[in-house]
Design goal:
about 120 residues; alpha/beta; Rossmann fold; four-stranded parallel β-sheet; about 45% helix; about 20% strand
Length: about 120
């Protein structure tokens, strides 16, 4: 089974906004060799999630894990993203899609943010 991780970010008009996401993508690629690691955006930037999935499916990917690179759930993650992924499941019925919760709601991420906030404040 060929697996891809797709880091799904909001996107912005300023291309520099994506640099931290691209850095995380590079770190993931360096830390493991079994899955492709892609980056897709909701708006303003390319590729979209649909474009990214189409490319991975064309390359033979059979399992796609979509990881929202958001701090918390809002309308985009509660409504839009599930609708997009449901449409992709319809378009690619032989692909196993996994949609995780937002990365920012993971305990390890929240702990790292709290520790970093304290360090930035010099506490």
């Amino acid at each position: 089974m060929s697996t891809a991780l797709i880091l799904f970010a909001h996107g912005a008009r300023d291309p520099e906004w994506a640099q931290p996401m691209r850095h995380i993508q590079s770190l993931l690629k360096a830390q493991q060799a079994t899955a492709e690691v892609e980056l897709a955006f909701l708006e303003f930037m390319k590729p979209t999630l649909a474009e990214c999935v189409a490319e991975r499916v064309l390359a033979g990917t059979t399992k796609i894990c979509v990881i929202p690179m958001f701090i918390a759930q809002g309308g985009h993650l509660k409504r839009e993203l599930p609708e997009i992924v449901d449409g992709l499941r319809t378009d690619y019925p032989t692909v196993d899609f996994v949609l995780t919760g937002p990365i920012g709601e993971q305990q390890a991420v929240m702990q790292a943010m709290a520790e970093t906030a304290l360090a930035l404040a010099g506490l």
